[in-house]
Amino acid sequence: MSKETKKVQNPGGGRAQRGGRRHSGAASGAKKRGPAMTAAAKLVWADAKDGEAAAKQLLKSAASAVPELAANLNASNDEATVQASFALEAMTMAASTPGQEPRRSSLASALAKALDGAADDVARNVLIRALQLVGGDKEVPALAKCLEHEGSFDAALLALRQIGSEEACLAIANSLASAKGRRRTVQAAALADFGYSCCHPDIPDQVAGVLAKASPADAPMLWAALAKLGYAGVAPALGKALKGESKSRAAVARGCLSLLARNCLTEDDVAAAIAELFKAERESVPSMMALMDNTGEEDGSSVPYLLGMASSEDKVVQEAAANLLIEDFVGSSVTETIIHYYQVHKDDTGKHDWSGLRQVLIRVLGRRGDVAARPFLMSLLHDPEAAIRKSAMEAIENLMGQLDRRALVAAIL
Q1: Which of 70, 77, 129, 242 is deepest in the core (most CB within 10 A)?
Q2: Domain containing 133: what range?
Q3: From residue 361, how far is each of 142, 310, 368 by CA, in Å?
């Protein structure tokens, strides 16, 4: 530190204001500046080694240091507030290192106690952000009280979600009764972030109750929450949105139905979710993925459906179906089904680009890795259409490795 810098420091630490500007009481009040604030002032200017030592020292005396630091937090964002915030952050980082569980618990307890005496929302939020990293079930009641304050609601909800325990989940659920407007919607949506081990059976119904009274703008957030929770009762609302005029809401509903099908707890509910999706959009990638997520590799019942999707005029749907046929099914029975489909429809002259579809199916057979397709692919080397012969050659090489093309051409001719 230079001599000039030292000259403008206060005796208690930190830089002095120039030009005779008066300090606020929060920055200079003697009753708020004790050992912890003195250490905090030094911490701001410390190098890495000294800063680590200061943070650990503050952490050792967390029970007395936190109240002193918290008393210097306020919305004026003055020098004392900056120093106290920096010190609390350093203590939190030190408590988060391995082997510091007892001191981490002590720090969390002190932070929770300090919330009651916080001067304003700024002070409260600094303490909450620290608790987000070090808090646990014992601190949940203190954080739950902060959900009642508009200015600290977002920070408190995030901290409870970060703790992620059953106690935190119940705290959010219990506060729904008194919450209103946006806060009620956001809390209900947050319940979906907790795993099934934390989520009580009545929570999906609570979220559904919030959805019933929510504004149209808030509905998509709750759709997603109910889909995560596997609540099949939301399927009709999602199906209705899929058929609505708003493309953005339809896109959200489409994704939610696919997610719902993966998360439903019973086969009947899964079937209902998939049926709702198929009623609105049979030929879509989400429909295919929802179906595949709920059928095993050994179940070939969805292969005919995927072959139909491979003939779609939508190239994205066609490619998705082809990839599923390549990657999600094993065994020669599926290979034989694909070959049979090709042969039955090879002379199809309908509205679809059948030549293009034939090439897609040939590529699928070449990339599935099933040598049972080799004789059929070899036979296509005699096809009258040059594009089919080329696709067959590439498929054979994908399946069997590089071939002597000159010898093959001579044999074909």
Answers
A1: 70
A2: 1-163
A3: 62, 8, 11
Number of domains the chain is built from:
2
Residue finishing a domain among 163, 180, 214: 163
**Alpha carbon of residue 18 to chain centroid:** 48
For residue 144 the two structure tokens come to 């739950």
Q: Which of 8, 5, 25, 27 is nearest to 16 (CA)?
A: 8
Which phi and psi angles does 262 have, rounded to 5°? -80, -25
Q: Is residue 400 part of a domain?
A: yes
d(CA 377, CA 396): 7
Tens of pLDDT, residue by residue over 264-280, are 777 777 777 766 666 66
Torsion angles phi and psi, residue 148, rounded to 5: -80, -15
Q: pLDDT tens for residues 53-83?
A: 888 899 999 999 999 999 999 998 889 999 9
Q: Which of 50-59, 337-346, 386-395, 396-405 has the lowest mean pLDDT?
A: 396-405
Please measure the distance between the N-terminal and C-terminal CA atoms of the chain and give it in whole angstroms: 88
Q: Is the pTM value of this prediction over 0.85? A: no
